[in-house]
Amino acid sequence: MREVPPLSRTASGWRGFLSALREFSYGFTGYEFARHALESRAAVENVFMLTLVGDMLGVPVMPPYYSLGLLPYVVPEIATWKRRVLREREFTDEHEYHLHGV
After folding, report:
1. Is 6 helix (H, G, I), strand (E, B) or coil?
2. 46-83 pLDDT per residue, tens
3. Is the whole model's pTM more than 0.70, yes or no?
4. Does residue 94 belong to any structural domain of this protein?
5. Could you tell me which of 50, 39, 57 has the C-alpha nearest to residue 74?
6. Structural domain of 68
7. CA separation for the pair 45, 33 (Å, rounded)
């Protein structure tokens, strides 16, 4: 088996340390922003899908003429949207309990 020279071990150690430092700084600064952006996008997507295909659930929001024009673009996502919206949830799922300032 070929032995790795000490210089490349040091370089790979530094790369690993820098990678861990990068992940730590992302978790420390950007993770909460990214998570909030994903939650906001999901909420906006839920409202859009509800206005577009609300007739399936009995909510007549948009005239069918306009929703039929957009229907080919959202047909692949209808099944996942219905599964996401109609799944059972716990009472605490909707609320985020932040302990900022405690």
Report:
1. helix
2. 888 888 887 777 877 777 777 788 888 888 888 888 88
3. no
4. no
5. 50
6. 6-89
7. 18
